[in-house]
Automatic annotation (TrEMBL):
Keywords: Signal. The lineage of its organism: Bacteria, Bacillati, Actinomycetota, Actinomycetes, Pseudonocardiales. It comes from Lentzea tibetensis. Residues 1-30 form the signal peptide. This is Polysaccharide lyase.
């Protein structure tokens, strides 16, 4: 029998050889290579196929209306004051996309995985915070219709309007981060979520007042023990406008929201 010995000197020689190989591949001083996004749709190429589906006018009352359309580099989500969804007994309205599709397949966020989802959005002055719910982002579980687990919501208390990232189905529906809505209107702003699904998951949130990595942070936060379970299925994000019409009529206007530069990366 041949005896194999792995000495300290041999180990150091092996490590040095590996370092030389790595140095020959990466330029000196190069930063670690970033992970490529699993989802980075192009509106001109992918259109509405970037999503698993669109939920709007599900009762078919307004077939002439275009609810989600492509405008140049972005998706525009329209909603009308008299729209009504088929859920809630007529007390709400909805124009939303659901899910993320890449290469013809839905991306699925599972328990224990960590995903970063980022995008830019444009909220006009006609999109108001409301005293009841107005969500412009949700995470849900398709198979069980569980959730919304987390939301990005536009709220109102008196004359003060807020934008709130919320652990919506966690006890007390606490905020992850929040700030005033007014300074973020009528411009492109940047949103980033970091989501680890689970019965006690973790969610981080950042919103920047502008675009690009150097845009000032308007609000940020991170919360653990967030209820965001895949329930044996998967977590699916939704974008658009989903709101109660039981708020003040002056806040339920015909309006829209735009999204662009979507990216989703599994870490």
């Amino acid at each position: 029998m041949v005896e194999l010995r792995f000495t300290r000197r041999a180990a150091l020689q092996t490590a040095a050889a590996a370092a030389l190989v790595l140095a020959s591949v990466a330029p000196a001083g190069a930063a670690p290579q970033a992970l490529a996004p699993q989802w980075q749709p192009n509106p001109a190429v992918d259109g509405l196929k970037a999503f698993e589906g669109i939920e709007a006018d599900r009762g078919g009352k307004h077939p002439e209306r275009k609810y989600v359309v492509i405008e140049g580099d972005h998706w525009k989500f329209n909603i009308w004051k008299d729209d009504r969804d088929t859920t809630g007994g007529g007390d709400r309205q909805r124009t939303e996309s659901k899910g993320m599709v890449a290469n013809g397949a839905a991306l699925k966020l599972k328990n224990g995985e960590t995903w970063t989802i980022s995008y830019e959005m444009f909220m006009p002055s006609t999109l108001h915070g409301t005293s009841k719910f107005t969500h412009i982002f949700q995470t849900k579980t398709p198979k069980t219709n569980g959730g919304p687990w987390t939301t990005l919501s536009l709220g109102r208390s008196g004359s003060k309007e807020t934008i709130r990232a919320r652990a919506f189905s966690t006890s007390g529906a606490p905020d992850i981060a929040s700030t005033d809505l007014a300074p973020l209107r009528d411009k492109w702003v940047t949103v980033e979520w970091t989501i680890t699904p689970g019965a006690k998951g973790t969610v981080g949130f950042v919103i920047r007042n502008g675009t690009g990595a150097n845009a000032p942070i308007a609000a940020q936060g991170r919360r653990t023990d967030v209820r965001i379970p895949d329930e044996g299925d998967y977590i699916r994000p939704k974008w658009g406008i989903y709101r109660s019409v039981e708020s003040a009529s002056s806040d339920i206007l015909t309006t829209y929201i735009n999204f662009r530069n979507y990216q989703a990366t599994k870490k």
